[in-house]
């Protein structure tokens, strides 16, 4: 066979593979749609997540090194720092909380050496502080750490266990599965949770593999759109980008999730963490702190307790912002808020010391000639002049400005 023929065959094979992949995706999405038509609009319908969830998760800071003391002390710290009053109420335990073996009835059990009082006691404690407890499992045979079992094949039993313990939030990972599509495995847990008798926020952690933005709202309350974040500018900003393309799919009850916050973990500058928090807030992402709240610094507190930025995230309109203008390293992200207001982030994502960025009303969805009052959310100042047609700002390298614009005439 000549070189050309081999080349042509490779092209044909790649095309066939592509067609097959598209068909497989379409048919499994079809499964969900058919299922939904026969039953109800939303498999889950648990009424949760009307605004993006806020709280803390153990993974980004502690990885597998967790125990009940850390979880209790974190709950205490969320209250004593005042963070819980600002809305950070979910205390979420990630991977590594369970024994590798189920008990003789097939139930998951908390790891004796690190969670000796059991998860139910922890839930009672967290509830006594006015907070909620989240837990973690996996739509596979083992979780990603392989240190505990997953829930594949045990969905109904595990959902019942979680409900009996008083769990309020389930993060459901995608490791070590049987090779079937997430569109098949995740709805099983959705049905199990719906049957378990307790409203449990359902967070799909399938890393964006099968485009969960397209089906997640029928199955869960949030869905990861990317693989894992790490505590660096590049990782953070690329997760924000990947998540942005799905903006239209976010809505009250179901949110795009670009992964948990790294603010306070030490890998970025203060300005970079401000960008991180601003982009997550305007993108209506879950605001799950990933630092050690027990030892939170003044600087971190200043960022994560910015009430005005949190209010953008928690606005009841629930519309995720989009990039509306990109010029080199200068970007404008904007999205509507209730009361005809608009939230805007001006971002300098490059090395240039200062960039002048101008938002025209046209770009950000404000009718021309509207007179607008601009509130700077990081300076906590209402700018003196009302603005007509545009707003201009100078933004430092790896930094942003964030405003709420309110029409006044
Ligand atoms: C995956 C998830 C992470 C974390 C780890 C735990 O990588 O995406 O968020 O839960 O597993 O092992």
UniProtKB/TrEMBL annotation:
GO terms for cellular component: plant-type cell wall. It catalyses: Hydrolysis of terminal, non-reducing alpha-D-galactose residues in alpha-D-galactosides, including galactose oligosaccharides, galactomannans and galactolipids. PROSITE patterns: ALPHA_GALACTOSIDASE (PS00512). Its EC number is 3.2.1.22. It comes from Medicago truncatula. GO terms for molecular function: alpha-galactosidase activity. Keywords: Disulfide bond, Glycosidase, Hydrolase, Signal. InterPro entries: Aldolase_TIM, GH, Glyco_hydro_27, Glyco_hydro_27/36_CS, Glyco_hydro_b, Melibiase_C. This is Alpha-galactosidase. One of its GO terms (biological process) is carbohydrate metabolic process. Residues 1-26 form the signal peptide. It holds the Pfam family Melibiase_2.
């Amino acid at each position: 066979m000549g070189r050309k023929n081999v080349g042509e065959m490779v092209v044909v094979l790649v095309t066939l593979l592509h067609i097959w992949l598209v068909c497989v995706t379409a048919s499994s999405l079809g499964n969900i749609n058919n299922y939904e038509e026969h039953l109800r609009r939303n498999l889950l319908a648990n009424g949760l997540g009307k605004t993006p969830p806020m709280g803390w998760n153990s993974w980004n800071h502690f990885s597998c090194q967790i125990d009940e003391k850390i979880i209790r002390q974190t709950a205490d710290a969320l209250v004593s720092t005042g963070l819980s009053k600002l809305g950070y109420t979910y205390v979420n335990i990630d991977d590594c909380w369970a024994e590798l073996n189920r008990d003789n009835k097939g139930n998951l059990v908390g790891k004796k050496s690190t969670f000796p009082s059991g998860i139910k006691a922890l839930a009672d404690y967290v509830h006594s502080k006015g907070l909620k407890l989240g837990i973690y499992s996996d739509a596979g045979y083992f979780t990603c750490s392989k240190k505990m079992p997953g829930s594949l094949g045990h969905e109904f039993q595990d959902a019942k266990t979680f409900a009996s313990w008083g769990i309020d939030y389930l993060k459901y990972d995608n490791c070590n599965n049987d090779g079937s599509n997430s569109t098949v495995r995740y709805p099983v847990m959705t049905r199990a949770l719906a049957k378990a008798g307790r409203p449990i926020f359902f967070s799909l952690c399938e890393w964006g593999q099968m485009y969960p933005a397209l089906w997640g709202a029928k199955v869960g309350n949030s869905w990861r759109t990317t693989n894992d974040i790490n505590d660096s500018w590049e990782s953070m900003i690329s997760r924000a980008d990947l998540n942005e393309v799905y903006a239209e799919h976010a809505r009250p009850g179901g949110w795009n999730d670009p992964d948990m916050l790294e603010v306070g973990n030490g890998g970025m500058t203060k300005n970079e963490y401000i960008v991180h928090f601003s982009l997550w807030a305007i993108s209506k992402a879950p605001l799950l702190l990933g630092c050690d709240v027990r030892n939170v610094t003044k600087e971190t507190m200043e960022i994560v307790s910015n009430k005005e930025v949190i209010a953008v995230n928690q606005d009841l309109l629930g519309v995720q912002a989009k990039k509306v203008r990109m010029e080199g390293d200068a970007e404008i992200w904007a999205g509507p808020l209730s009361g005809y207001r608009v939230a805007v982030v001006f971002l300098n994502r490059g090395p240039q010391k200062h960039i002048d960025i101008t938002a025209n009303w046209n770009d950000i969805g404000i009718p021309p000639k509207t007179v607008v009052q601009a509130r700077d959310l990081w300076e906590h100042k209402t700018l003196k002049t009302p603005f007509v047609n545009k707003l201009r700002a100078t933004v430092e390298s790896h930094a942003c400005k964030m405003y709420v614009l309110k029409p006044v005439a």
